[in-house]
From TrEMBL:
It comes from Shiella aurantiaca. Coiled coil: none annotated. Gene3D superfamilies: Enolpyruvate transferase domain. This is 3-phosphoshikimate 1-carboxyvinyltransferase. Residues 18-61, 63-402 form the Enolpyruvate transferase domain.
Length: 413
């Protein structure tokens, strides 16, 4: 859906500001599935305003035969497992892009457990017809760990509700590992124990227990504010509310990454203060295997700060909201920066070669990917910007542009 582009005025120095941040869509979508599987009352506080979470809330209540997840990966994957065990006959569909995002490994795993699921268009991809699980066939199954951790989280959340429980063997490299840990931590909070030893996770049949849970602010959303802090001039502080030092979200890895790029984090009981410090010298190595959603933020900051960096762990980026590698390469070229693969899995970020791009308005395409819009927005500290389809941010952070205005940045729609 094309909309008018958003003009962002060049603003090198931001106002001192407090950014409320949305709460985590990853935590919210897990909490909602657990609540749906729990027969006691679960009180969920501070659920995310993200479209992905609002879609999950709506679809869990829906009586419709066809459920449309739009572009929400976790909603698609978690509902596939949830509907299978709750014996609901539903069709699950999504956007054109969702129909290109693979789901075969999860469907195979659920079929191995005994679920009946059919592909309605292309083998291995949504839309799916879910017919439910009548009798559990296998207790022990294996699944690759290197494609999407969301398949694993989906299986884990339904595992205690299976008549015989589940023994899951993860094969190959495990990507996005903190998201798996988050799933198990949230399950433990609602009374379900799991045993995770190396590549094997065992969950006995057991019931979720009612509890209340307050969702933390979203660390992936926080990363864009770290980027503003790293690129702006002046000593004004940015305060990010609702973030915890002992977070369950792996994207709090942004704290360490940005420390070497010149942003210190001071934790307070109600959030974190971002304070400018001198950046470390030299070239940087960043591994995004555990935190793929930070790759776009870091690529833009390294490019604009003129820092050459070596990136690994980008494998999953090609199957997200867009092919994020291709999107990054195209947009970084507009600021004379490059992201190139030197050997398989090893990427080099060559920073901006010149500053010519700062002289004119920089047009950024967003590829129906919220993270492209938010990762490039901090470049308004360097040049006038124009962001295509700014409403893409609604997927995870509907208040993003309002928060940008709070930082003293002028927007024109
Ligand atoms: O489980 C989750 O909440 C998520 C897991 C990650 O996906 P992958 O496991 O596919 O890398 C991440 O990129 C996504 O934004 C959210
Ligand atoms: C990859 C993402 O989301 P999902 O896979 O849940 O669509 C994301 O939010 O960056």
């Amino acid at each position: 859906m094309a909309s008018k582009a958003l003009q962002i005025t060049y603003t090198p120095q931001l106002k001192e500001c407090t950014i409320p941040l949305p709460s985590s869509k990853s935590e919210s979508n897990r909490a909602l599935i657990i609540q749906a599987l729990c027969s006691d009352t679960c009180e969920l506080l501070n659920l995310s305003p993200a479209r992905d979470t609002q879609t999950m809330i709506r679809l869990l209540k829906s009586e419709d035969e066809t459920l449309d997840v739009l572009d929400a990966g976790t909603t698609m994957r978690f509902l596939t497992a949830y509907l299978s065990v709750s014996r609901k006959m539903k069709t699950l569909t999504g956007t054109d892009r969702m129909k290109q995002r693979p789901i075969g490994l999860l469907v195979d795993a659920l079929r191995n457990v005994g679920a009946e699921i059919e592909y309605l268009e292309k083998e291995g991809f949504p839309p799916l017809a879910i017919k439910g699980l009548h009798e559990q066939s296998n207790i022990s199954i294996s699944i690759r760990g290197d494609v999407s951790s969301q398949y694993i989280s989906a299986l884990l959340m339904v595992a205690p509700c299976l008549p015989k429980g589940l023994h899951l063997q993860l094969t190959g490299k495990i990507g996005s590992r903190p998201y798996i840990a988050m799933t198990l931590q949230m399950m433990a909070h609602f009374g379900v124990q799991a045993d995770w030893q190396e590549n094997e996770i065992h969950i006995a049949p057991q019931a979720y227990k009612g509890n209340s849970y307050t969702i933390e602010s979203d660390w992936s959303a926080a990363s864009y504010w770290y980027a503003f802090a790293a690129l702006k001039e002046g000593s004004e502080e940015i305060f990010l509310s609702g973030l915890r030092k002992d977070s369950w979200q792996g994207d709090n890895a942004i704290v360490g990454m940005m420390h070497i790029l010149g942003v210190a984090s001071v934790f307070q009981p109600d959030g974190v203060r971002l304070i400018p410090i001198p950046a470390r010298q030299g070239e940087f190595h960043f591994d995004f295997s555990d935190c793929p959603d930070l790759a776009q933020t870091m690529a833009v900051v390294c490019a604009a700060k003129g820092r050459k960096a070596f990136f690994t762990g980008l494998e999953s980026l090609r199957i997200k909201e867009t092919d994020r590698i291709a999107a990054l390469q195209t947009e970084l070229a507009k600021i004379s920066a490059r992201l190139e693969e030197s050997q398989e899995g090893q990427w080099t970020l060559f920073p901006c070669e010149n500053e010519d791009w700062k002289k004119e308005t920089l047009h950024i395409a967003t590829y129906e990917d919220h993270r492209m819009a938010m990762a490039f927005a901090p470049l308004c500290t360097q040049a006038n910007l124009e962001i295509e389809n700014p409403e893409v941010v609604n997927k995870s952070y509907p208040g993003f542009w309002k928060d940008v205005e709070q930082a003293g940045i002028h927007l024109t729609y």
